[in-house]
Amino acid sequence: MRGKLIIGVMAFLCVSCGRAVSVLDSDFKLDHVLEVEGRQGVATDGDFYYVSGSTALYKYDMEGNLVARNEAPFKDLQLECNHIGDIDEYDGEIFAGCEYFLDGVGKNIQTAIYDAKTLEYKRSIPWVPESGQVECCGLTVDRDRKEVWMADWVQGSELYCYDLKTGKYLRNLTLSPAPRLQQGIYCVDGQMLVSCDDGDAEKDEPDNLYKVDLETGEVTLFRTMDDFILTGEIEGLTMNPKNGNLIVMSNRGARIILGMPKGFYPGYDREIHNIYIYTPENNNER
Length: 286
Description:
Blueprint: E1 12-13, E2 20-21, E3 27-36, E4 41-44, E5 48-53, E6 56-61, E7 66-70, E8 83-90, E9 93-102, E10 105-115, E11 121-126, E12 138-142, E13 147-151, E14 158-163, E15 169-174, E16 182-188, E17 191-196, E18 208-213, E19 219-224, E20 233-239, E21 246-252, E22 254-257, E23 260-264, E24 272-281
Antiparallel strand pairs: 1-2, 3-24, 4-5, 5-6, 6-7, 8-9, 9-10, 10-11, 12-13, 13-14, 14-15, 16-17, 17-18, 18-19, 20-21, 21-24, 22-23
C-alpha cells in the first residue's frame, strides 16, 4: 500500500519475508507529466529537476518552472565536445556524459561535473579508450559503491565503471542479453535501470525499461512504456531520492528515422520534450 511505502530509493527489510526489498520491487503508476526544454537526460535531488539538451543544461523546480540554464556547458572543457547524454545528480553536483559525436563515433568522452546550484562547470573525469567504450549515451552514480557508470548507445553490450573519487577506470560489465539502443541509466539498490529506444514509433510500438543485476550482468524487462502521450523517442531516466518516484524523459512529435529527424507526425509542428513522473506502489504488503 502506498501509505506504508518506506520513502526514498533505498532497500529495506521485509519483516514478513526476511529479505531486502527494493523500490524496484514496486509497480509504478503515472502521476503527472511536465514539458521541459532539453531532449536528452533528467536527474533530480528531490528539490529540483535537472534536464540536459544536446548542448545545454536546465534546472526546474518541482512544479516545472525553469529557474536556471547553462547554454554554453562546453566552454570550459579542455577537450572539444558537442553532445551531452543522460545525466545524474549526486551530492550537489550534476554528472553529465559529454563527448564529441560524429558519424556514429564518439571521442573526447568524459564525465563533466557541474555545480547543481549554478550549473557551472567544475571538473571532469576522463574516458579510458582501452575500456572499449566508443560512445556515451548516459551515466549514473552508484551512491553505495561511490562509482560512476557509463553506457554506450553504439555498441551497447557493456557498461563501464569508474571510481567516483579518483576517476580511475575500474571494470566493464557485460550485459546478457544486451538491450538495444540504450539511452539512459540509473543505479539503485545494486541494480541498474536502463531506458532503451527499442520500440518503433512508426508502428506505435512503445519503448522499454530494463533492469540489470550489477553482479551478474543479467538483464530483465522492467517496464514497457505504453502510457506515453505519444509513442516517440525515450531518453534518460532517474529516481527521486526523497519519495522513490520514477522519472522518465521522452520526446514526441518529430519523426525520427534511423536517428535523423524526418518531419513531424500529424498534429505536430515541433518536437515536445516531456518528463513523466511515476509513483511507486509497493507490491510486497498486499
